[in-house]
Amino acid sequence: MDALIHGLVSLFDLHLLLLIFCATIGGVIIGALPGLNATTGAALLLPFTLTMEPVPAIATMTAIYCSATFAGAITAILINTPGTAASATTCLDGYPLAQQGQAGRALGMAVVASTFGGIFSVICLMLAAPLLARAAYHFSPPEYFALTLFGLSMLASIGDGSAIKNLIAGVFGILVAMIGVDNLTTVERFTFGSYHLYEGIGFVPVMIGVFGISELLVQSERLHLSREVIRMKSVELPGARDYRDSWRAILRSSGIGTFIGILPAEGATVASMIGYNEAKRWSRNPKLFGKGAIEGVAGSEAANNAATGGAMVPTLALGIPGSATAAVILAGLMVHGLQPGPNMFTEQADFAYAIFWSMMLVNLLFFVVGLRGARIFARVTLIPVEVLWPVVFVFSIVGAYALDQSMFDVWVALVSGVIGYFMRRYGFSVVPLAIGLILGGMLEQRLGQSMVMLDEKWWLMFTRPLTLLFLVLTALALFGPATWGRLAKRRAPLDSTGE
Amino acid sequence: MTPPTDKPKLLGQCERWLIPVLILAFCGATYWVSTTFKKMPPILKRGIQPSDFPQLLLLLLVFLTLLMVWKDPVRVRDRLMGSTVGTIALFAGFAALTSIDFFLALGVFATVLSLFWGERRVPVLVLVGLLVPAAIFFTFDQVFEIRFPRGLLTSIWYG
C-alpha cells in the first residue's frame, strides 16, 4: 500500500508531468502516422531516455505505447489506413462511418472506448502484476526456463505470418543473442576476434533496425500510393444511444484485451481482432458490421488499448514481454539497470507503481488530447513520405549511435534494417527476432542453472509440477492451433452432411 | 515510381528455394563455427558446454526450415522495386560518407533520399537535409552531452 502511494506521489513533479504530456502528444502523432507505430516510436525514443532517471525514462516509453496504440484509430477512421496494425479492425466500421459523414462520432467512440479499455487494464495491472510476481518469487531455474520457453512458444501465433516462419525468426533472434562472451563460462562465441562483438549485439540498435529502418524500406515500395483524407468538423462524444449500443462491447473487449495482453508475446493486434469478432458475435445487429457499426469501433479500440496494460503484467512481473512494444520497454528497463521480475515488487516497488500511475495518467490525457486535438493530429497524415522517412532515418541512426557512442551500433542498425526488410518481404515477422534476442540469453542461463540444479538430469524437469505445466502449455501453444484446425476441418464435412 | 508488376514464374521459384537454402547454409556454417568453441572441463562447464545451446538451436532451425519447405514455402509477392534497391544502395553511400563526417553523411543522405523519393521543393529539402540533422546534432551536443565522431565538419564545431 505504501508503494502504491509513494508511486503516485513521485508523479507530482512538474518536469515529469510535462514529459508525460509531451510523450502522450508525441505518441498520438506517431500512432497517427501510417508506417510508424508504438513499437517503432518506443525503439526510436529509447536512446533519448538514456540521460534520464528510470521513472521518467520508462514513463515516457509507456506514454508512447498507450497513446500511439489509441492514435492508430485516427488514420483508420479518416483515411482507411490503420496507423498501427492494432487498429486494422477499426477501419472496418470506422471508415464507413466517416464516409457517411460521421467521422467525429466514430473518433469520439474510439477515444471513449480506448480510454475505458486502457484504464481497465491498468487497474488489472495494479492488481495482477504484484500477485503474479509473488507467485513467481518461489520459482526455481527449471520453472523459469519452462516459463521463458512458454513465452517464446507464444511467438508462433503472433502477427499475421505463419507459425513456422515466426518460430524460425524467434530461433534466429536467440542465436543472435549467443554472440559474445558466454555468461556462464566466459568462453567467446561467434566473436570472430572482434572486440565489438565481445559483449554481444545490443538490443537497441537491432530494434531500431528491424522496426525503424526496415519500415523505411517497406515505405519505399509504397511511393506510388495516394491517400484521401476525409474531412470532419469536430470530434463528438458518443450519444446516449451509442453508449446503450456499445457498453457491453466495450466492457467485453476490455476484459479480452487485458487477458490477451497478459499472454506472453500476444499484443494489441490479436486483442483487437478477437475484441471486434466478439463484438460482432454478440451484437443485436451483426449485419451492420463492416458497414458502419459503432459497436465495431468500440469493440476493436477498447481491446487494443486494454492490451497495453495487460502486456505490462508479464513484462514487469516475470521479465517476459507481453507484446513487441513491451519487448522494447523491457530492453529499456535493462538499459537503465533495472531487473524486471518478482524482485521488482519488493526491491523497486515505488518504481513499478510510479509506472502504473503514469500509465493511468496517460490514458486520461489522451482522452482530452484525442477529443480536442484529433482534427489537428489527422493533418499529420498529410506529411509526405519523402519528408517523413528521411527524418525518421536521421533519428534512427543518431539514436543507434547515442547508446554507446559507437559507429558499430550504427552498422548493426543498418544491417538489421536490411535483414528485417527481407524477412518481412519473405513472410517472416521481425517481432519474434526482437523478442528472441531479448530472451535468448536468459533462456540459456536458466537452462544451465537448471542442469546444475538437477545434476545434469534434464528429464527431472518433468517431475516438477509447475515446470511440467509450463512445458505442457508450450506444447499446446506450438501444436494446439494446427491440431484444432485439422480437427475442425475433419468435423466440417460431417456437420455439413448432418451426420 | 512504377507500381509493382507480376513476378515472372522462374524468378519466383528461385526465391522460393533460395531462402531455405540460404538458411540451411547459414546453419551449416554456424554449426561448424560452434564446433571451434573452447570446451570447459566438467567442473567449470556450469551445466552445459558453451557450444551445446547454439548447436541445439541450429538443429531446431534446420528442422523448422525443412518443415517450412514442406508445409509453408516462401511466397514472393512481387518484384523487388527499384526504389527499394536504390534506397539500400544509398545506405552504402551513407556508410562511405561517414568516414568523412557523420553529420555530413546524415545531411547528404536525408537530402538525396528525399530527392530520390520524389521531393523537389528546395525549402523542404533544406529542412530535411540541413535543419533537422543540425537540430538533432545540437540537441545531442548541448542537452545530452553526446558527441558525434570527429570529422570534416564536426571538428570545426568541437575545435
Write the layout of secondary structure elements.
The complex is a heterodimer of chains A (499) and B (159).
Chain A lengths: L1 H9 L3 H19 L5 H8 L8 H26 L8 H12 L3 H34 L4 H13 L9 H15 L2 E2 L6 E2 L13 H17 L20 H23 L5 H15 L11 H25 L5 H12 L8 H4 L1 H31 L5 H20 L2 H19 L5 H23 L11 H33 L2
Antiparallel strand pairs in A: 1-2
Chain B lengths: L8 H26 L17 H20 L10 H17 L3 H15 L5 H23 L9 H5 L1
Helix pairs in contact in B: 1-2, 3-4, 4-5
In short:
The complex is a heterodimer of chains A (about 500) and B (about 160). By secondary structure, chain A is mainly α. Helices cover about 70% and strands about 0% of the residues of chain A.
Which characteristics define this entry?
heterodimer; A: 499 residues; mainly alpha; two-stranded antiparallel sheet; 2 strands; globular; B: 159 residues; 6 helices; 67% helix; flat; disordered N terminus
In this structure, how is the largest beta sheet of chain B organized? none
Would you tell me the structural class of the helices and strands of chain A?
A: mainly alpha
The span between the termini of chain A is 59 Å
Give me the Rg of chain B, rounded. Answer: 24 Å
Beta-sheet strand percentage of chain A? under 5%
Radius of gyration of chain A: 22 Å
Q: Treating each run of at least 4 consecutive H or I residues as one helix, how many helices of chain A?
A: 19
End-to-end gap of chain B: 44 Å
> What is the count of β-strands of chain B?
0
Largest interface, C-beta within 8 A: A-B, 59 and 73 residues
For the residues shown, what is the average pLDDT of chain B?
Answer: 87
- Could you tell me the mean pLDDT of chain A? 86
